[in-house]
Amino acid sequence: MSKKIIIAIDGYSSCGKSSFAKAIAAKLGYIFIDTGAMYRGVTLYALRHGMVVDGRVDEAALVAALPDIEISFAYNSERKAGDLILCGENVESQIRTIEVSNLVSHVSAIGKVRERLVALQQRMGRDKGVVMDGRDIGTTVFPDAELKIFMTASVEVRAERRYKELIAGGHNVTLEEVRRNVEERDNIDINRKESPLRKADDALLLDNSDMTVKQQMEWVERIIDERTR
Ligand code: DC
Asked: Which residue, judged by its Cα, is nearest atom 11 of ligand 1?
Protein backbone atom coordinates (compact mmCIF):
# COMPACT_ATOMS: atom_id res chain seq x y z
CA MET A 1 0.00 0.00 0.00
CA SER A 2 1.26 3.48 -0.81
CA LYS A 3 1.83 5.92 2.03
CA LYS A 4 -0.26 9.06 2.49
CA ILE A 5 1.58 12.29 1.83
CA ILE A 6 1.05 16.05 1.79
CA ILE A 7 1.16 17.67 -1.63
CA ALA A 8 1.84 21.41 -1.54
CA ILE A 9 1.03 23.41 -4.66
CA ASP A 10 2.07 27.05 -4.78
CA GLY A 11 2.42 29.58 -7.52
CA TYR A 12 1.15 32.67 -9.25
CA SER A 13 -2.49 33.76 -9.49
CA SER A 14 -4.63 32.02 -12.09
CA CYS A 15 -2.18 29.44 -13.32
CA GLY A 16 -4.58 26.60 -12.73
CA LYS A 17 -3.36 25.56 -9.29
CA SER A 18 -6.82 24.73 -7.99
CA SER A 19 -7.89 22.68 -11.02
CA PHE A 20 -4.61 20.80 -10.91
CA ALA A 21 -4.78 20.23 -7.13
CA LYS A 22 -8.40 19.10 -7.44
CA ALA A 23 -7.56 16.61 -10.20
CA ILE A 24 -4.68 15.17 -8.15
CA ALA A 25 -6.88 14.86 -5.06
CA ALA A 26 -9.60 13.08 -7.07
CA LYS A 27 -7.05 10.68 -8.52
CA LEU A 28 -5.57 9.79 -5.11
CA GLY A 29 -8.75 10.01 -3.02
CA TYR A 30 -7.14 12.87 -1.06
CA ILE A 31 -8.77 15.98 0.39
CA PHE A 32 -8.31 19.11 -1.71
CA ILE A 33 -7.92 22.38 0.18
CA ASP A 34 -8.01 25.72 -1.64
CA THR A 35 -6.36 28.10 0.82
CA GLY A 36 -6.97 31.11 -1.43
CA ALA A 37 -10.69 30.61 -0.74
CA MET A 38 -9.96 31.06 2.98
CA TYR A 39 -8.25 34.44 2.40
CA ARG A 40 -11.13 35.38 0.11
CA GLY A 41 -13.59 34.47 2.89
CA VAL A 42 -11.88 36.81 5.34
CA THR A 43 -11.91 39.52 2.65
CA LEU A 44 -15.65 39.07 2.10
CA TYR A 45 -16.17 39.37 5.85
CA ALA A 46 -14.26 42.69 5.87
CA LEU A 47 -16.36 44.00 2.97
CA ARG A 48 -19.62 42.98 4.57
CA HIS A 49 -18.76 44.51 7.93
CA GLY A 50 -17.81 47.96 6.67
CA MET A 51 -14.09 47.40 7.20
CA VAL A 52 -13.19 48.61 3.74
CA VAL A 53 -13.28 52.37 3.25
CA ASP A 54 -12.19 53.95 -0.06
CA GLY A 55 -10.59 50.67 -1.09
CA ARG A 56 -8.51 50.46 2.10
CA VAL A 57 -8.88 47.70 4.66
CA ASP A 58 -9.25 48.75 8.31
CA GLU A 59 -6.58 46.38 9.54
CA ALA A 60 -7.11 46.96 13.27
CA ALA A 61 -10.86 46.31 13.02
CA LEU A 62 -10.32 43.16 10.97
CA VAL A 63 -7.70 41.77 13.36
CA ALA A 64 -10.01 42.50 16.30
CA ALA A 65 -12.82 40.60 14.54
CA LEU A 66 -10.67 37.52 13.73
CA PRO A 67 -12.00 35.41 16.65
CA ASP A 68 -15.52 35.82 15.19
CA ILE A 69 -14.58 34.84 11.65
CA GLU A 70 -15.37 31.15 11.29
CA ILE A 71 -13.98 29.51 8.17
CA SER A 72 -14.61 25.94 7.09
CA PHE A 73 -15.39 23.87 3.99
CA ALA A 74 -18.43 21.77 3.07
CA TYR A 75 -17.96 19.16 0.36
CA ASN A 76 -19.92 19.91 -2.82
CA SER A 77 -20.30 16.69 -4.80
CA GLU A 78 -21.12 18.57 -8.01
CA ARG A 79 -17.88 20.60 -7.95
CA LYS A 80 -15.99 17.73 -6.30
CA ALA A 81 -14.46 20.28 -3.93
CA GLY A 82 -15.22 22.06 -0.69
CA ASP A 83 -17.43 25.16 -0.79
CA LEU A 84 -16.25 27.90 1.53
CA ILE A 85 -18.42 28.35 4.61
CA LEU A 86 -18.12 31.73 6.32
CA CYS A 87 -19.78 31.93 9.74
CA GLY A 88 -22.23 29.19 8.75
CA GLU A 89 -23.08 30.59 5.29
CA ASN A 90 -22.04 29.05 1.99
CA VAL A 91 -20.27 31.93 0.20
CA GLU A 92 -18.47 29.97 -2.54
CA SER A 93 -19.77 32.17 -5.36
CA GLN A 94 -19.58 35.47 -3.43
CA ILE A 95 -15.82 35.06 -2.84
CA ARG A 96 -15.05 34.88 -6.57
CA THR A 97 -16.14 38.42 -7.54
CA ILE A 98 -13.65 40.95 -8.92
CA GLU A 99 -14.39 43.13 -5.86
CA VAL A 100 -13.03 40.40 -3.56
CA SER A 101 -10.16 39.64 -5.99
CA ASN A 102 -9.07 43.28 -5.95
CA LEU A 103 -8.84 43.35 -2.16
CA VAL A 104 -7.71 39.87 -1.19
CA SER A 105 -3.98 40.47 -1.63
CA HIS A 106 -4.19 43.36 0.84
CA VAL A 107 -6.05 41.24 3.38
CA SER A 108 -3.65 38.33 2.94
CA ALA A 109 -0.68 40.60 3.63
CA ILE A 110 -1.88 41.13 7.22
CA GLY A 111 0.31 39.06 9.55
CA LYS A 112 -2.42 38.21 12.08
CA VAL A 113 -4.76 37.02 9.32
CA ARG A 114 -2.05 34.72 8.00
CA GLU A 115 -1.22 33.41 11.47
CA ARG A 116 -4.84 32.41 12.03
CA LEU A 117 -5.37 30.79 8.62
CA VAL A 118 -2.01 28.99 8.60
CA ALA A 119 -2.85 27.38 11.97
CA LEU A 120 -6.21 26.27 10.56
CA GLN A 121 -4.56 24.86 7.42
CA GLN A 122 -2.00 22.95 9.49
CA ARG A 123 -4.84 21.38 11.45
CA MET A 124 -6.63 20.41 8.21
CA GLY A 125 -3.51 18.59 6.99
CA ARG A 126 -2.63 16.92 10.26
CA ASP A 127 -3.57 13.43 9.05
CA LYS A 128 -1.91 13.87 5.62
CA GLY A 129 -3.68 12.72 2.47
CA VAL A 130 -4.25 16.34 1.39
CA VAL A 131 -3.49 18.41 -1.67
CA MET A 132 -3.31 22.03 -0.61
CA ASP A 133 -2.92 24.94 -2.98
CA GLY A 134 -1.88 28.49 -2.17
CA ARG A 135 1.14 30.76 -2.05
CA ASP A 136 3.05 29.66 1.05
CA ILE A 137 2.13 26.01 1.51
CA GLY A 138 5.57 24.57 0.72
CA THR A 139 7.43 27.39 2.49
CA THR A 140 5.38 28.09 5.62
CA VAL A 141 2.32 25.86 6.12
CA PHE A 142 3.98 22.51 5.39
CA PRO A 143 7.72 23.05 4.98
CA ASP A 144 8.15 19.27 5.30
CA ALA A 145 5.57 18.32 2.67
CA GLU A 146 6.65 15.19 0.79
CA LEU A 147 5.89 16.78 -2.59
CA LYS A 148 6.04 20.49 -3.42
CA ILE A 149 5.15 21.94 -6.79
CA PHE A 150 5.58 25.57 -7.81
CA MET A 151 3.38 26.53 -10.75
CA THR A 152 3.74 29.34 -13.19
CA ALA A 153 2.52 30.42 -16.64
CA SER A 154 2.84 33.62 -18.69
CA VAL A 155 0.70 36.61 -17.63
CA GLU A 156 -1.16 36.52 -20.99
CA VAL A 157 -2.11 32.88 -20.58
CA ARG A 158 -3.20 33.36 -16.97
CA ALA A 159 -5.31 36.48 -17.66
CA GLU A 160 -7.01 34.75 -20.57
CA ARG A 161 -7.83 31.66 -18.49
CA ARG A 162 -9.18 33.72 -15.59
CA TYR A 163 -11.21 35.93 -17.96
CA LYS A 164 -12.89 32.90 -19.54
CA GLU A 165 -13.68 31.49 -16.10
CA LEU A 166 -15.25 34.74 -14.92
CA ILE A 167 -17.30 35.20 -18.10
CA ALA A 168 -18.52 31.59 -17.84
CA GLY A 169 -19.52 32.33 -14.25
CA GLY A 170 -21.64 35.27 -15.44
CA HIS A 171 -19.30 38.02 -14.17
CA ASN A 172 -19.13 41.22 -16.20
CA VAL A 173 -15.41 41.99 -16.72
CA THR A 174 -12.97 42.92 -19.48
CA LEU A 175 -9.78 41.03 -20.35
CA GLU A 176 -7.74 44.17 -19.58
CA GLU A 177 -9.31 44.48 -16.13
CA VAL A 178 -8.49 40.83 -15.37
CA ARG A 179 -4.93 41.20 -16.64
CA ARG A 180 -4.36 44.24 -14.41
CA ASN A 181 -5.74 42.31 -11.42
CA VAL A 182 -3.50 39.30 -12.11
CA GLU A 183 -0.40 41.52 -12.41
CA GLU A 184 -1.24 43.56 -9.34
CA ARG A 185 -1.84 40.45 -7.25
CA ASP A 186 1.47 38.93 -8.37
CA ASN A 187 3.20 42.11 -7.38
CA ILE A 188 1.66 42.25 -3.90
CA ASP A 189 2.09 38.50 -3.31
CA ILE A 190 5.80 38.60 -4.21
CA ASN A 191 6.63 41.77 -2.31
CA ARG A 192 4.69 41.39 0.92
CA LYS A 193 6.61 41.15 4.19
CA GLU A 194 4.72 38.16 5.62
CA SER A 195 5.36 34.85 3.81
CA PRO A 196 5.89 36.32 0.34
CA LEU A 197 5.23 34.10 -2.64
CA ARG A 198 8.44 32.29 -3.49
CA LYS A 199 9.42 28.86 -4.69
CA ALA A 200 10.65 26.58 -1.91
CA ASP A 201 14.16 25.33 -2.71
CA ASP A 202 12.91 21.75 -2.88
CA ALA A 203 9.78 22.49 -4.96
CA LEU A 204 9.52 21.22 -8.52
CA LEU A 205 8.86 23.96 -11.07
CA LEU A 206 5.92 23.48 -13.44
CA ASP A 207 5.40 26.05 -16.20
CA ASN A 208 2.10 25.05 -17.76
CA SER A 209 1.78 27.88 -20.34
CA ASP A 210 1.73 25.31 -23.13
CA MET A 211 0.50 22.23 -21.30
CA THR A 212 -2.92 20.64 -21.16
CA VAL A 213 -4.35 19.35 -17.88
CA LYS A 214 -3.81 15.82 -19.21
CA GLN A 215 -0.11 16.48 -19.81
CA GLN A 216 0.26 17.99 -16.35
CA MET A 217 -1.39 14.92 -14.81
CA GLU A 218 0.92 12.55 -16.68
CA TRP A 219 3.91 14.54 -15.42
CA VAL A 220 2.76 14.52 -11.79
CA GLU A 221 1.54 10.93 -11.65
CA ARG A 222 5.06 9.61 -12.25
CA ILE A 223 6.42 11.78 -9.45
CA ILE A 224 3.65 10.85 -7.00
CA ASP A 225 4.32 7.23 -7.69
CA GLU A 226 7.92 7.66 -6.54
CA ARG A 227 7.10 9.77 -3.49
CA THR A 228 4.38 7.53 -2.09
CA ARG A 229 6.34 4.29 -2.40
O1 DC B 1 -5.58 31.37 -5.12
P2 DC B 1 -6.45 32.63 -5.11
O3 DC B 1 -6.22 33.52 -6.29
O4 DC B 1 -7.89 32.36 -4.88
O5 DC B 1 -5.92 33.42 -3.83
C6 DC B 1 -6.46 34.66 -3.46
C7 DC B 1 -5.40 35.53 -2.80
O8 DC B 1 -5.07 35.01 -1.52
C9 DC B 1 -4.10 35.69 -3.56
O10 DC B 1 -4.06 36.93 -4.21
C11 DC B 1 -3.02 35.61 -2.52
C12 DC B 1 -3.69 35.13 -1.28
N13 DC B 1 -3.20 33.84 -0.79
C14 DC B 1 -2.15 33.84 0.10
O15 DC B 1 -1.61 34.90 0.38
N16 DC B 1 -1.72 32.67 0.63
C17 DC B 1 -2.29 31.50 0.31
N18 DC B 1 -1.84 30.37 0.87
C19 DC B 1 -3.36 31.48 -0.62
C20 DC B 1 -3.78 32.67 -1.16
From this structure: 105
> Please, which pLDDT band fits residue 192 given cuts at 50, 70 and 90?
confident
Q: Which spans in the chain are helix H?
A: 17-28, 35-48, 59-65, 98-107, 111-124, 155-168, 175-191, 213-227
DSSP 96: G
Distance (angstroms) between ligand 1 centre and the Cα of 2 equals 31
Helices (H) and strands (E) counted in the chain, each on its own, are 8, 10
Residue nearest to atom 20 of ligand 1 (CA): 36
Terminal Cα-to-Cα distance of the chain (whole angstroms): 8
Name residue 81's amino acid.
A
**What distances in angstroms separate CA 172 from CA 40, 96, 97, 168, one per listed residue?**
19, 12, 10, 10
Average pLDDT over residues 212-220: 95
